[in-house]
Amino acid sequence: MKKVVLAGGTGFIGQYFQHGFEQLGYYVFIISRQQGHISWQDHAGIVQALDGADLLINLAGKSVNCRYNASNKKEIMESRTRTTRILGEAVLHCRKPPALWINASTATIYRHAEDKPMTEQSGELGTGFSVEVAKAWEEAFFSYVLPHTRQAALRIAIVLGPGGGVLTPYIYLTRFGLGGKQGPGNQKFSFIHIEDLFRIVQYIQSREDLEGVFNASAPYPVTNRELMHEMRKTMRVPVGIPTPKWMLEMGAIVIRTETELILKSRWVVPERLLEEGFEFKYPTIQSTLKAVLNIK
């Protein structure tokens, strides 16, 4: 029996992955705080699920789409590092450990970059809360020495896909004529279609020589200004009123989120994947938006 374990697998990405692996004939186990799945407190159940698994994918972590107050900061950090350590300890207790463990990380680990792209080899790590979370997440993951389990961390860019995810608010803004640039508009927007993210997981699984850190991002990031232009063009909306930074700050307070999600320049390039021969199905923002919005 082919077996995949999805930790934190009830969100947007997890649901897509569950469906994808089930279509490929895998039996999917999910570890989650939600009822009906393996509980994070059920150590024996986690070990049993992991024993003999072909693949473990950890997507667990509180959403960063919130205000960065002390309580949320603590939960954002601990929900990533704690679950990673729970999985690491469980893998150590397996008679037949998973062949591959892929742990989510984030492209936000790199600094605000408008001058050059960030690659796995030459990228410069940033500073601030989000970066410290990403560093601690990867440190927790790679702290385990697992001779029978390959480990890969995916520094995932903003994931776009049909039926939800980050693109939904952009769609509403564009539809109501507010789809202009946000803030200066020069900040880079690195993204990946959810299908390509799933294909990257499959590719790493098929290549037993691959491990370590990978940027999971489409090869052609755009500026925020270019993103919103393509949104308007794809959705056939002629007008897009820009949103200045001060208005974004006010709106973020109202909807209880942070402007970093929009204003940080994420210029991330998947150098390792491209060098290893991975081919993206949706390499550009144009092809991604057309697929996500189902426009022929």
What labels describe this entry?
11 helices; TIGR01777 family oxidoreductase; Epimerase_deHydtase; 6-stranded parallel beta sheet; 16% strand; 3-stranded mixed beta sheet; 40% helix; alpha/beta; 296 residues; DUF1731
Overview of the structural elements:
With 296 residues, the chain is of the alpha/beta class. It has eleven helices and eleven strands. It has helices at 12-23, 43-50, 70-92, 129-142, 167-175, 194-206, 224-235, 245-254, 260-263, 271-275, 285-292, and strands at 3-7, 27-31, 55-58, 100-106, 150-156, 158-161, 164-165, 188-189, 191-193, 212-216, 222-223. The strands form three sheets. It has a six-stranded parallel β-sheet, with helices on both faces. It has a three-stranded mixed β-sheet with strand order 7-6-9. Helix 2 (43-50) packs across helix 3 (70-92), helix 5 (167-175) packs across helix 7 (224-235) and helix 7 packs across helix 11. The chain is globular and about 60 Å long. It starts with a strand and ends with a helix. The model has no long low-confidence stretch (mean pLDDT 94).
Strand content: 15-25%
Share of helix among residues?
A: 25-40%
Number of helices: 11
Q: What is the average per-residue confidence, as pLDDT, rounded to a whole number?
A: 94
Strand line-up across the major sheet: 2-1-3-4-5-10
Main sheet?
6 strands, parallel
Secondary-structure element order, as H and E? EHEHEHEHEEEHEEHEEHHHHH
Give the overall silhouette: globular
Distance between the termini: 39 Å
Poorly predicted runs of 5 or more residues? none
Q: How would you classify the quaternary structure?
A: single chain
